[in-house]
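#structure-requests
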Amino acid sequence: MQYFGERLFTVDEDTTRASIPKFWIEPLNAPNFAGLCDTLLITAECDPVRDEGEAYGTKLHVAGTKVTFKR
């Protein structure tokens, strides 16, 4: 996670964060989950963000998106 964060926020983290919609960084906080394409969601049993990924998939499913889960 640190590796990807360093690639996204390379110059000035505060300025970069202000220029990116918050839900791009934290998809669980998206304002709307409706109308998205079918999703294949794959997580690993020991994935540090497994629970967040599965919560995201649940929100997609509740909004009417076809979601296939694989752990």
